[in-house]
From TrEMBL:
It comes from the Bacteria. This is Cytochrome oxidase I. Residues 15-70 form the XdhC- CoxI domain. Pfam families: XdhC_C, XdhC_CoxI. InterPro entries: MoCofactor_Util/Proc, XdhC_CoxI, XdhC_Rossmann_dom. Residues 173-315 form the XdhC Rossmann domain. It comes from Simplicispira suum.
């Protein structure tokens, strides 16, 4: 599954390329609680097709009703379509917040762009698919769009003259090992918007891989890590239990900006891994500080799918900057339970 923004932009580009009218809605401001963060996008086609989301659903329904009528010359918005961007605010009053399914006190404002240029969208998509971070600026008086590479990720900027949104590059997950648990983790990562690469030099594991959408490679894991050049939107998860495959790849990943680096295994196995890395590769507690293990959050998981859920939950928490309490860490939780036994 593609990154959500890419999916929205691709659908919008296809609608415009085929000659259909369409709009792009972007969340530009929120007050109080809001279902979707600033920068979230949604595309709406004149035939009522929708891709993406700006709320829990009720606002999307209102946009469909308003603008499918406007495109045929009906309703208060008929004069707006085809012109410069306009703003739409939802949830200003308690009644509106209730009507549109917004949390109590929640308000959001959208920028509505009409009939974005297909070629400009295609250029943006090509850059994103090439792994580039892109900045898209919309000039409010006339809707002119300027797109340029960006140096770092940034939050949406909105002022009196323009709205600037930054897209990409997509989040990536490298899974070392093509076993059963990897299939569950890859599936969840894909529907969470990650581009997934699975690395396993063992033919007997690769031959039975069944998750569509994940790229499967046969090179040695440390070589794959080196070739991927993990950045701040990349996580590396080792799931083979085989030191020959996991250890060097984890070491290589720790030398990158990967936001998450971890290996599967029990508390004893993870302690043994750390001891090996210190003894044979001159590692220290400081150099291994970012190495996670046992990975996952403690949910009492026993089966491969449950363990994969716990790992994916930890990856997403780290991605989203959420500090997990120590009693949710696998090692800490098991120590507490053993002490209570």
């Amino acid at each position: 599954m593609d990154n959500l923004d890419v999916t929205v932009l691709r659908a919008l580009a296809e609608w415009r390329r085929s000659g259909q009218r369409a709009l792009l809605a972007t969340v530009v401001r929120t007050w109080g609680s809001s279902p979707r963060p600033e920068g979230s996008i949604m595309a709406l086609c004149e035939n009522g097709a929708v891709m993406g989301s700006v709320s829990g659903g009720c606002i999307e329904d209102d946009l469909i009703a308003r603008f499918t009528r406007a495109w045929v010359g009906e309703g208060d918005d008929a004069a707006s379509v085809g012109g410069p961007p306009v703003f739409a605010k939802y949830g200003v009053t308690a009644d509106e917040a209730h009507r549109f399914g917004l949390p109590c006190g929640g308000t959001l404002e959208l920028l509505i762009e009409f009939d974005p240029d297909a070629e400009t969208l295609a250029e943006l998509l090509a850059a994103l698919e090439a792994g580039k971070l892109m900045q898209r600026s919309v000039r409010l008086p006339d809707g002119a769009v300027v797109q340029r590479p960006a140096a770092t990720p940034a939050t949406l900027l909105a002022d009196a003259g323009q709205v600037v949104n930054t897209f990409g590059p997509e989040y990536r997950m490298l899974i070392i090992g093509a076993g059963q648990m990897s299939e569950y983790l890859a599936t969840m990562a894909l529907f969470s918007g990650f581009a997934v690469t699975v690395c396993d030099p063992r033919e007997e594991y690769r031959s039975s891989w069944s998750v569509a959408g994940a790229r499967v490679v046969s090179d040695m894991p440390d070589d794959v890590v080196s070739a991927m050049r993990p950045d701040r939107r990349t996580c590396v998860v080792a799931l083979t239990h085989d030191p020959k495959l996991d250890d060097l790849a984890l070491l290589q990943a720790l030398e990158t900006e990967a936001f998450y680096v971890g290996g599967i295994g029990s508390r004893r196995n993870n302690a043994a891994r750390r001891a090996r890395l210190k003894e044979h590769f001159d590692q220290t507690d400081e150099s291994l500080a970012r190495l996670r293990g046992p990975i996952g959050i403690y949910i009492g998981s026993k089966t491969p799918p449950e363990i994969a859920v716990s790992v994916m939950a930890e990856v997403l928490a780290v991605k989203n900057g959420v500090a997990l309490p120590r009693d949710m860490e696998v090692a800490q939780a098991k120590q507490v339970r053993e002490g209570m036994a």
